[in-house]
Amino acid sequence: MGVDWPLVFQGAKTVLDPLASASWPIVIGLTAWAFRKPIESMIGRVRQFSGFGTTAEFATREAITHQQEAKNTSNPVLPAIADASKFPPADPVFDILDRQLRSLLDQVISEDDALKLAWAIRQRSISEANRIHETNYRLIFGSQIFALKTLNTVGQGLVSEFENYYNEKVLVNSQWEGIHKGRNFEQWGQFLLDAEYVVIVEGSDPPIVQITSFGKQFLHWMVLAGVSEFKVG
């Protein structure tokens, strides 16, 4: 029986051609498996690949780790809502002023509430200082304002010098005779001490008096308020 060799060759070609076309992926696969660890190390450093008409960009291991950490910390714990019963009670006047201050803080300060609270406290301190200065201005004598301005210029001075000023300039003023009648120097100067506008320098002998920061602020407040430094007494 004769062998039809052309038919055999045709059948072999039919079987071998697909194997031949598939052999290069198999070889590449075996090579990749053999050198998998070096390739993994290299892939970790690859940022971008271009080829076959396209470009691909890969995230680095550090970037992936950073994204995972950011995801884990993306939900911060928010402060608990304050008990509404602890808020100041409603008031037709104060509520308006509260809203004005809150609106001002929101416009000027965009950071956290702690910073707004700090500035709100400072605003309250400024208002309180102005209130104290206004009250003291109604009570202070013109001669005491003169003494403060003198101390603001020289910084400090002997108590005896201001005592001489009181006895020789204030008490002898005929226009103020009724105001200071029966008032001695210690009483005159005590007002400035109680207002904390002046202090006696500790350990000074003879005694030295100096103006305080609060006293300087009082003089500054007078300028801003537009009040006169010339008062009776």
Structural features, described:
By secondary structure, the chain is mainly alpha-helical. It folds into three domains: 11-72, no CATH class; 90-133; 140-225, Arc Repressor Mutant, subunit A (Orthogonal Bundle), CATH 1.10.10.10. Helices cover 62% and strands 8% of the residues. The protein is built from ten helices and five strands, in the order H-H-E-E-H-H-H-H-E-H-H-H-E-E-H. The chain has helices at residues 5-34, 36-43, 61-72, 94-108, 113-139, 142-154, 159-170, 177-180, 185-194, 213-225, and strands spanning 48-51, 54-57, 156-158, 198-200, 208-211. The strands form two sheets. The chain has a three-stranded antiparallel beta sheet. Strands 1-2 form a two-stranded antiparallel ribbon. It is elongated. It starts with a helix and ends in an 8-residue tail after the last helix. Mean pLDDT is 76; it is low at 5-9, 11-16, 18-35, 42-47 and 73-78.
